[in-house]
Design goal:
Number of domains: 3
Oligomer: single chain
CATH class of the largest domain: Alpha Beta
Radius of gyration: 25 Å
CATH superfamily of the largest domain: Periplasmic binding protein-like II
Mean pLDDT: 86
Low-confidence stretches: none
Strand order of the largest sheet: 4-3-5-13-6
Shape: elongated
Helix content: 40-55%
Order of helices and strands: HHHEEHEHEEEEHEEHEHEEEH
CATH topology of the largest domain: D-Maltodextrin-Binding Protein, domain 2
Number of strands: 13
Strand content: 15-25%
Number of helices: 9
Largest sheet: 5 strands, mixed
CATH architecture of the largest domain: 3-Layer(aba) Sandwich
Length: 290
C-alpha cells in the first residue's frame, strides 16, 4: 500500500515538475515528498528523477514509469470519485480549453447554467485557438469545432451545427438581395477560405459557390461583427448570430440553403472521466442538441 501512495506522490511531482509545488498542491511536507520518492526509487532499483537545485528532470526509466503510474493513479482516483458521487454531487476544479469566439458568443450562458446546477464545481477556462496537449497540459476536456486532427484522443460528438447565410439590411439594400446561390459570387462574402468556396445544400441538391471579398478572416466573432457593420454576407450557425438577428442587425437570406453542418466535439485523453467532466460533457450535449 505504501508503494501505491509513493506512486501517487511521484506522479504529482512530475506533473508539477517541482517537489515544492507538488507539496503545496497535495498538502504534504516537501521533506516527506522527497523522502517517499527516494524510497520508491530504492524499491524499484532505478533512478526516476534527475534532481538539481533549480529543477528536476525525468530519466528514461522515470518517463516509462510515469506513463504507467499516471493511468493507475487516475483510475484509482476515479474509482473513489465515482463511488463518492453516490453520496454527493460532483465537485472540484474543471479545467477546459474552449474555442474563443464560440465560447464568448454561445457557450457562456450554457456554462453559467451549468455552474448554477453544480455549485461545488469551480472552473479554469483557457480560451485559445491553439491545439492544446491534453496529455502534458492540465486540461480535463477541450471543446473544438470541426473534425479532430489527433486520432489518439477520445472525441465525443456534442452536436452538428448547420451554417446559414446572413447579411445586414443595409448591405442588402446597397448590394441587392441574392436569389440564387450562384449570385453570391457577385457579393462581398466574409470568412471565406483563400482557395475554395462555400458548399451549400438544399435537401439532396448540393452546389459549390466560388466566393470572394475584401476580408479573409479566421475569427467567428470578427466575421459576425463585420457583417453587422454592413460589410458582406456570412455563413455561420444560427447559434452564433442569434443576438444580431433579434436586434435586426442581420437577417437570413437564401433560407432554403445551408452550409455543411459544423461538428462540435468534446476531446479528452481517456474514456475514464471524473464526474465533473462527465457531467459537463453530457450537459453541453443536451443543450446543443436543442
Amino acid at each position: 500500500m505504501d508503494q501505491l501512495n509513493d506512486m501517487a506522490y511521484f506522479v504529482e511531482v512530475v506533473k508539477a515538475m517541482s517537489f515544492r509545488r507538488a507539496a503545496e498542491a497535495i498538502g504534504v511536507p516537501n521533506s516527506t515528498l522527497s523522502r517517499r520518492v527516494s524510497a520508491l526509487e530504492k524499491a524499484i532499483g532505478l533512478r526516476l528523477l534527475h534532481r538539481t537545485t533549480r529543477r528536476i528532470e525525468l530519466t528514461e526509466a522515470g518517463q516509462i514509469y510515469y506513463e504507467r503510474c499516471r493511468r493507475i493513479v487516475e483510475e484509482a482516483r476515479l474509482a473513489h470519485e465515482q463511488l463518492g458521487e453516490m453520496l454527493s454531487e460532483p465537485s472540484g476544479v474543471l479545467r477546459a480549453s474552449l474555442p474563443v469566439d464560440f465560447a464568448n458568443i454561445f457557450l457562456a450562458p450554457l456554462i453559467a447554467e451549468f455552474a448554477r446546477r453544480y455549485p461545488r464545481i469551480s472552473f479554469e477556462f483557457d480560451l485559445t485557438p491553439r491545439t492544446v496537449d491534453l496529455v502534458s497540459e492540465p486540461f480535463d476536456v477541450a471543446i473544438r469545432m470541426g473534425e479532430p486532427r489527433d486520432s489518439s484522443l477520445i472525441a465525443r460528438l456534442l452536436a452538428k451545427l448547420p451554417g446559414r447565410l446572413y447579411a445586414s439590411p443595409a448591405y442588402l439594400e446597397a448590394a441587392g438581395l441574392p436569389k440564387r446561390p450562384s449570385e453570391l459570387a457577385d457579393h462581398q462574402c466574409l470568412g471565406f477560405p483563400k482557395n475554395g468556396g462555400w458548399t451549400l445544400q438544399n435537401g439532396q441538391e448540393s452546389i459549390k459557390v466560388e466566393v470572394g471579398g475584401r476580408y479573409v478572416l479566421n475569427s467567428v466573432g470578427m466575421i459576425r461583427r463585420l457583417a453587422a457593420l454592413d460589410q458582406g454576407i456570412i455563413l455561420l450557425p444560427i447559434e452564433v448570430v442569434e443576438e444580431d438577428l433579434a436586434a435586426g442587425r442581420l437577417q437570413p437570406i437564401l433560407t432554403d440553403w445551408q452550409g455543411a453542418p459544423i461538428p462540435v466535439y468534446a476531446l479528452t485523453e481517456t474514456r475514464l472521466l471524473p464526474a465533473k467532466t462527465l457531467h459537463f460533457i453530457q450537459f453541453l450535449r443536451e443543450r446543443l442538441a436543442r
